[in-house]
Specification:
The complex is a heterodimer of chains A (464) and B (345). By secondary structure, chain A is mainly alpha-helical. Chain A has 13 helices and eleven strands. In chain A, strands 1-4-9 form a three-stranded antiparallel β-sheet, with helices on one face. In chain A, helix 3 (106-139) runs antiparallel to helix 4, helix 4 (146-175) packs across helix 6 (201-229) and helix 8 (271-278) packs across helix 10. The model of chain A is unreliable at 1-11 and 456-464 (pLDDT under 50). Chain B has 345 residues and is mainly α. In chain B, 78% of the residues lie in helices and 1% in strands. A two-stranded antiparallel ribbon of chain B has the order 1-2. In chain B, strand 1 and strand 2 (290-291) form a beta hairpin. In chain B, helix 1 (3-33) packs antiparallel against helix 2 (42-52), helix 6 (112-141) packs across helix 7 and helix 7 runs antiparallel to helix 8. Chain B is globular. Chains A and B meet through helix 2, helix 3 and helix 13 of A and helix 3, helix 4, helix 5 and helix 13 of B. Bound molecules: CIS-heme D hydroxychlorin gamma-spirolactone and protoporphyrin IX containing FE (HEM) (2 copies). The site of one protoporphyrin IX containing FE has 21 residues of chain A, from helix 1, helix 4, helix 11 and helix 12. The site of one protoporphyrin IX containing FE (HEM) has 21 residues of chain A, from helix 1, helix 4, helix 11 and helix 12.
């Protein structure tokens, strides 16, 4: 391991951008960030259901169409009702996020809206289609013919994909901006399509998709696994368990590979973010990766009290144990993200990702070799934990991406502090929204927990 | 027509659709609130639940549509409006959360107690949202939003005569639309008692909405003279007249029991108000500060957006048509059930 002595300041932004609404006095930065983060943390688990649940209930409906067994219909119907409730909550929390583009970051939207807005216009169309067809699907179970009903489900799946793809395109663009020029501090010559499909979109999209399947698959598997192990071994429980578990178990190993792809893209596009994953102070050839510990600025900066694994960071970032990895000090202190937040989130995500992969592979191995579900109680205990852990990994992943992007809102061009609103009283808004979100979460969880266990009357006659 | 104008027409069309469709969903909340005790109000509430369930989410997306087109095509307007008017807009999103969640969850309540709490939340939030959004629009219309990051007045930008009038108008027109729509739904469901109940409500709320609208004119004349000047001649005046005639026609049709046609005229009356506002304010988007052409994003953005929306419309328009056809021909109707009956053993 040798320290490379060149301090080449990163080629971030040839020219900085001034805000279209003028200077801000940035006293609101902290509450605005916290409010933004809180809103995302509420929205993003719901999004997972929007991504993954339609594919799952369509799969079960496919089983029903093939076998004619009403148990499958009852299960698909019930999941689609859950999806509709969660869609509704996703809609309102998503609306909050849209408002926050103006309420919290008016100068960001005013300055760059002409560049990234297109993605949201496409998102709007997608969500329209999704809202329309999910309603027809759920309220049409008994009035549409079987074939027509199945067809109505297909646009739900597709629009879930395109909707979140366009939003992720915006996030990818914020992390790897393009599609505009800067002249005299002004954003000119927007090329919206080019902005949409920059370098970070693709790994974020695939990684988020798999995350959706992991989160929903493991949550479902945990719920029905508990029932299964407590002796309710009917076809309904078994189908639900196997479907949820299979989706999650297949996604888990792939997620690790895609995570590696993400890391390599970040290494190319956002070296300081990558250096923060590890807490790598100086540019280093054959850089190690520390497990545990914390980053400290003392003694020139670096990880304290962690267990180093030699050359792992170089391997991870460039697939070459001797590669040179840029350090945090390649940029001035004012351009660095809060390293410990990024690092801790990243480590948590990767640890959970590895554990989920092991769990998934174990299930696949048992299924393959013995053709049945695992019997071990430990497996089911792990399953119950896996859903919440996947959720934690999801949030940690986003914190890695978003906090790792700091202090920029548009990486290299526009600082978060330039974007923020000048309106006061944001802590009041934060407090109120905290209470609102807590009530929302409590009510939703409380009612949904009951939904799958109480036989809804409309489904009961057919259920076994 | 310039690209900027086309984009503005899209924003206003989205706003009109939201005012009509989502406005009716908010209005349904008012009737839910005033339906009376659990037993007496059960029949009305059952109808509210049944009418709104399949459509309210799609109706809500019009708001998202307005926002995203606004921030893409007119980014500075969006930033200025949202930073100055953040108090009513924050209140509105609080209401949006409570309204949507409580409504969706009420469909799964298992006791009358739960249904009551969720219903009250849904109904009160349904009043808050149209009022706050109306008040925000009143602030824009009366020229109280300057260009800049929260440079307008925190309170008087939305607590002023125009805003209060538009807010109240938002609530009562929603109630009127809801009553008209649900009277028609009751005919389809073959429930004469509900048909009578909603007919009465439609007439009553229609008269009140008309009175508020007429009362708004002197308010505008004194509080927003620039806007008013745009309404007393030409296109602005035409919109006012059309809106008045359509409103009067709605009352006649409702009285005659022709609810299907009344749906159309009621929607027309509300859309004409939205159009009239845009015409009266032109060429300004932010009165006295920013004209349509100054506010518009560069050509490349507008073209990209319009082309994308045009392609999107190829999918969207038939989908919307399908939804409303299935709703209106009863395919998506659930069996009607008074809300309180669900909880009887
Ligand atoms: C269930 C969720 C989950 C799991 C198990 C993992 N991830 Fe992840 N990760 C996410 C969910 C996530 C995410 C959906 O939250 C993020 C945020 C932004 C994105 O693209 O995906 C993310 C971001 C993210 C980033 C930052 C991308 C960027 O900033 O552009 C990297 C480098 C990784 N991940 C790497 C990994 C590795 C190496 C993993 C496995 C060992 C892993 N992730 C497991
Ligand atoms: C700034 C970021 C975001 C904004 C402004 C936003 C906005 C919205 C809005 C307005 C809706 C409601 C759509 C409707 O009315 O039907 C929604 C729902 C949804 N969003 Fe987001 N969103 C954001 C982040 C994300 C992210 C990061 C993803 C995915 C990775 C995502 C995926 C979805 C999906 C799949 C839905 C459908 C609702 C559901 O199925 O629960 N969104 N979002
Ligand atoms: C894909 C859509 C997303 C978009 C367009 C987006 C956009 C933004 C914007 C505009 C900000 C405020 C400016 C800033 O702080 O830099 C922000 C901050 C933040 N976002 Fe995202 N975001 C997205 C997804 C997410 C998700 C899903 C999470 C999940 C937890 C998340 C977590 C955060 C956090 C923690 C911050 C605050 C960062 C800080 O200030 O330290 N983001 N995001």
């Amino acid at each position: 391991m040798s320290v490379v002595a060149i301090v080449d300041f990163l080629p971030i932004a040839a020219e900085r951008v001034g805000g279209a609404l003028g200077q801000t006095d940035q006293q609101n930065l902290l509450p605005a960030r916290e409010l933004q983060a809180m809103s995302f943390i509420v929205h993003i688990p719901l999004v997972c259901f929007g991504i993954a649940l339609p594919a799952m209930f369509m799969f079960v409906e496919g089983l029903y169409l093939r076998t004619g067994n009403p148990v499958y219909k009852a299960l698909a119907k019930r999941w689609s009702k859950v999806a509709l409730v969660l869609f509704a909550v996703g809609v309102v929390t998503g609306t909050i996020l849209s408002f926050e583009f103006g309420l919290l970051w008016p100068n960001f939207t005013a300055t760059f809206g002409s560049v990234f807005g297109l993605a949201f216009a496409l998102e709007g169309i997608s969500f329209f289609v999704e809202a329309i067809f999910i309603a027809i699907y759920v309220y049409g179970w008994d009035s549409l013919s079987r074939g027509a009903h199945f067809l109505v489900g297909i646009p739900v799946v597709i629009s879930g994909v395109t909707g979140s793809m366009t939003v992720i395109a915006v996030n990818g663009w914020m992390n790897d901006p393009g599609g505009f020029d800067v002249v005299g501090g002004k954003v000119v010559n927007p090329r919206p399509f080019q902005a949409l499909f920059g370098g970070n979109v693709w790994h974020e999209l695939v990684h988020m998709y798999l995350a959706g399947y992991l989160v929903v698959g493991f949550l479902i598997a945990g719920f029905y696994g508990r029932r299964w192990i407590s002796g309710r071994r009917d076809l309904h429980t078994r189908t639900a368990l196997v479907v949820g578990l299979s989706f999650a178990a297949l996604a888990a190993p792939v997620q690790v590979i895609v995570g590696d792809w993400s890391a390599r893209t970040v290494a190319d596009n956002q070296p300081v973010k990558l250096a923060s994953f590890e807490g790598l102070q100086q540019t280093t050839k054959g850089a190690p990766f520390h497990l545990g510990g914390y980053y400290s600025k003392a003694d020139g900066g670096g990880v304290k009290a962690g267990v180093p694994i030699p050359r792992l960071l170089s391997l991870l970032a460039f697939h070459n144990p001797n590669a040179t990895v840029k350090g945090i000090d390649t940029v001035p202190a004012a351009d660095r993200p809060p390293v410990n937040v990024v690092r801790t989130s990243f480590l948590t995500m990767v640890s959970i990702g590895t554990a989920l992969m092991a769990l998934g592979l174990f299930f696949v191995a048992v299924w393959w070799r013995k053709g049945r579900l695992p019997e071990s109680r430990w497996f089911y205990r792990a399953l119950v934990a896996a859903g919440p852990l996947a959720l934690l990994a999801l949030i940690c992943g986003w914190v890695t991406t978003e906090v790792g992007r700091q202090p920029w809102v548009v990486y290299g061009f526009f600082r978060t502090q330039q974007a923020v609103t000048d309106a006061g009283g944001l802590w009041i808004a934060f407090t109120v929204m905290f209470v609102v979100y807590a009530a929302l979460t409590a009510a939703t969880v409380w009612l949904l927990r009951r939904l799958p266990s109480t036989p809804a009357r409309s489904e009961a006659p057919e259920a076994a | 027509m310039s690209l900027a104008l086309v984009s503005l027409v899209l924003v206003m069309a989205g706003l009109a659709a939201y005012a009509v469709l989502a406005g009716a969903d908010f209005g349904a909340g008012l009737w839910d609130l005033t339906a009376g005790g659990a037993t007496r109000g059960g029949r009305i509430r059952g109808m509210v639940q049944r009418s709104m369930s399949p459509v309210w989410e799609a109706n809500h997306v019009w708001l998202i549509f307005v926002l995203v087109v606004l921030w893409t095509a007119f980014p500075t307007v969006f930033g200025s409006v949202f930073s100055t008017l953040y108090v009513p807009l924050f209140l509105a999103i609080g209401g949006i959360i409570f309204r949507g969640t409580a409504f969706a969850l009420r469909g799964h309540a298992t006791t009358i107690g739960e249904a009551r709490v969720l219903g009250a939340t849904f109904a009160l939030a349904s009043l808050l949202v149209p009022f706050c959004l109306g008040a925000a629009l009143g602030g824009i219309a009366s020229g109280r939003v300057p260009v800049g990051n929260a440079t307008g007045d925190l309170w008087s930008s939305w607590l002023n005569p125009t805003s209060l009038t538009v807010g109240v108008l938002g609530v009562v027109t929603g109630a009127h639309l809801a009553a008209v729509f649900m009277a028609a739904d009751s005919v389809r469901a073959g429930l004469p008692d509900l048909q009578r109940a909603f007919r009465t409500r439609a007439l009553l709320s229609g008269v009140i909405a008309g009175a508020v609208a007429i009362g708004a004119l002197p308010v505008l004349a004194s509080d927003a003279p620039d806007l008013f000047a745009g309404l007393d001649h030409g296109g602005g005046l035409a919109c006012v007249v059309v809106s008045g005639l359509a409103g009067a026609a709605t009352l006649g049709l409702v009285a005659a029991g022709r609810f299907g046609a009344a749906r159309a005229t009621a929607a027309g009356a509300v859309s004409a108000v939205v159009a009239g506002w845009a015409v009266a304010q032109s060429p300004y988007l932010l009165a006295g500060e920013l004209t349509l052409d100054q506010a518009a994003a560069p050509h490349a953005t507008l073209i990209a957006m319009l082309v994308s929306l045009g392609i999107g419309a190829i999918v969207l328009v038939p989908s919307l048509a399908l939804l409303y056809r299935l709703v209106l021909n009863g395919t998506l109707d659930q069996e009607y059930e008074p809300l309180d009956q669900r909880f009887k053993p």
